[in-house]
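User: Run a structure prediction on this.
Assistant: Running it now.
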Amino acid sequence: MQSQRLENYRKIAQLLLSQDRAYTHTEEGKGEAVKFRVPKERIEIRDLIHHEVCFDNELLDDFVLLKSDGSPSYNFACVVDDHEMAITHVIRGDDHLPNTPKQVALYRALGWEVPQFAHIPLILSDEEGGGRLSKRKGAEGIRHYRELGFTPEGLVNAMALLGFSPGANREFVTRSELVETFALEKIARKSARFDFDKMAWVNARHLKAMDLDELVQAARPYLLPLTTRMAGCTPSYVKRVVLLFKERIKTLGELADFAEFFFVDEPRVTPQAEEVVAGPQAKGVLKALAEALEKTEPFDEVTVERDARSLIEKMGVSGKDVIHPARAAITGQTVSPGLFEVMALLGRERTVARLRRAAGS
């Protein structure tokens, strides 16, 4: 296949040679190459992004079509390949704009229809120093974002907003809405800056909009390492855990990190949570709460909250003096879903055991 293509390039180069639109040129120490004779004329095109663009070919040097080894140059191969594939629109970064007059000149010399061009502004890195987003500067592959837990819908939405607006200041857009509203002419001419935090925010909007069963299914691969470690873990339990975090997470990877304490015997404790549990009154409060909750019946959210607040009133302390150390002891974190919801879902045995462990009793 490659050899057939090379033969085709040679055939077209020979046609240009026969029309005196190209000539041979000996490259020092390499051999004979074929160069295109650039017509000294102004070339005007209507770019779908930049609108009317004019090039003065008086400033362009003749350029190589076939190198001395017989391989085509980039500009020659682009024109030949695109023509043979019947490409009607060439959409590429605006760093390729300088190649356009060369390619248009080739199309016209060969009598081929010139495709429509759309040169899209580059995406800039959000790393220090900015510059073009690239493999060396901030760019990651799709697999990386899948591993982090971005949904396809969220990623497409966020990427579409880089230089494009669906109108009405909307930032949450479904794929079907993008299909309806997208047009090359609406793309901004100014380069957009890649913003990871904004992309995560957009993804969070898509997670919130998902049906709970759909979200549970999407979260399954991320929770699997946790659910397989927990004896007696049921689909119903997983669903209740996901529901607690549905409004809080930005990615499915965050869900696995934040919800880990629901699937282990002993939660990992952050330094901030350790500090809370080590407070002067914390151990006494945690011990008293454990004793109170051992008698709570039924052990559901409403009754747990009733008995916890009754203890707070009896001890004459503020709510935060009990809730903050209890959250740190039970979840290993200083931030979590509602504490009483967490306790009810964990159940009496695990809740009391964690409180007693943190209290040292």
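The longest strand covers residues 22-27.
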